[in-house]
Here is the input.
Amino acid sequence: MEPLDTALYDRPSVTVDVVVLTLRGGCLEVLLVRRKEHPFLNYWSLPGGFIWKGESLDEAAARVLRHKAGLEAEAGRTRRPGGHPIYLEQLYTFGSPNRDPRARVISVAYYALVEQSHVREISEESGLFRLLLKDEENVAEIYDAKGKKYSLAFDHAEILAVAVRRIRGKLSYTPIGFELLPERFTLRELQAVHEAILQKKLNKASFRRKMLASGLLQPTGEFERGTGFRPAELYRFRREA
Amino acid sequence: MEPLDTALYDRPSVTVDVVVLTLRGGCLEVLLVRRKEHPFLNYWSLPGGFIWKGESLDEAAARVLRHKAGLEAEAGRTRRPGGHPIYLEQLYTFGSPNRDPRARVISVAYYALVEQSHVREISEESGLFRLLLKDEENVAEIYDAKGKKYSLAFDHAEILAVAVRRIRGKLSYTPIGFELLPERFTLRELQAVHEAILQKKLNKASFRRKMLASGLLQPTGEFERGTGFRPAELYRFRREA
DNA sequence: GCAATAGTGTCTATGAGACAGTATAGC
DNA sequence: GCTATACTGTCTCATAGACACTATTGC
Here is the structure.
């Protein structure tokens, strides 16, 4: 077997960028990190990194999640601190020839769904930003808590747009809203997650019926406490199904 | 701006592989090419190629479609010989560290939907093969016209499995079946496409209602000829919608 | 009792499947 | 007339939205 002649072709660098999504205050938010290098010095950007030798794409994404987002992970099986895995899925691969001004860099984008309490608080180097995607737009908009708008490094605003569209589409046939909630949650909380992602109000009775009929929710027999009104039952996601 | 230090990281080669799907004899088929090099010498494989400098991933996929599958294309806008574009979409990126025994090769897979008459006839170097994906399997099976089964090069049987699952999912919320048919077609032909992809019989009246209600079909006022039974009206896909 | 939300029941509209019935081509 | 398929009408069933009604908590 002769060695592969790679000199004839472009030899791009390949990175993995991870869109870490969470829910806070009824809004979809994304974890961004501040760049410490040129180009786009001091711009906010998606956490990412180059692929290492001997590492699969999934493993690289889990490593980025662990090192850059502080989310515990095992090789290939990223886990929440609590124990069960963080939702992590490949999104799309971005490879416009000039998306990085330094060199040819192809980015395999992933997205992760994380419960808000597991994400580090905002700091100088990283933070959660509100994520807004208008219909018909192909770039997402990013705001901090004060409502200030930011431009992102590279084509990361486009990657975010693809991520939001993907999760909206996915939600319409899969109830992945769980992944943004603690292990036990009420149906009201789950409905709020769906409403925040889909950006529209849902019918309460219908939402309950559909969720319970799916067989994916397991009632725990326990209830909320100290709500000031009738407490709702807590459910758990049946991951085996 | 300092140059990117790429020596610290793995520098994989990046290829594009295209799953060209078509419909023949009521079955989903895929275009494969025979390898002329090691590894997997003489094995059938997906048409593919390395990414060139200055070329986007979409453009690379269109080029592979044009050169290796003989399907006319313009930069970024692959077109059928007749005039309207061939459906071409990014599928998934495969990057297991040992998927190519020679070197680290990451493959960005695309899939294309093509009318059967536009695909070259079977030859020594390329041909159409019947494509079968069993439930719960993560590799597809490949058969020639005589029913002989083949093993594919690299992880291409896995790529095909992902492609079949993607098109099945897509069909349930988008009527991409057109893309496998000539410009004008009957509702019976369209239904046959859906049945072949989804691997199940559909209700005729219901299928008609749904398709006509979608507003995506334009009646031409013309009819089939020489069928031996009542001829059906020919429809056209309204691409502007 | 009041406020607020949990959880249920009922009506309606919509859309899919089943199936029968009429229409139209070649023979 | 016969056959095969096109195309339509109707019934039923499942599901979603609308909305009202009862239940349960803290105050």
